Amino acid sequence: MTRSEFDDIRAFLADETTQAGDLLSIARMLLDDLEQSRMREAILRTHYLRLLTSARATVAAEAVHAPDPMAFLKHELAEHGQLPQDDETVQRVLADARTAAALLACLEESPQRPRRRAVPLRRCVGTGRTLPR
Description:
Layout (H helix, E strand, L loop, with lengths): L2 H12 L5 H44 L7 H9 L7 H23 L24
Helix pairs in contact: 2-3
């Protein structure tokens, strides 16, 4: 759910003419969104855990001089269609990794300045939801 949608809901809740039935439909909608978010989080955690486990197994296999220490990681990447197949893809992946490393280095070098907010900004982007009336 976007910030704009949250702002719309807050405004709807603050409106004194809002009916109880309308509030109930918003509550149901929010519960559905929460359930979907929790499912997405569980799936992402599972993917992360599988990737972390395969990375640890790869390092352990390398430590004991296994014949193919990258097998665990290759298998996990291949299962999700993320294993680079051709030279062009390999070069793009390496370029992305170098760019990500450079961006992280820049973020670590420059301290973040505190954001100044004199007046809170309200942005309404898109019309993803309609509130009952």
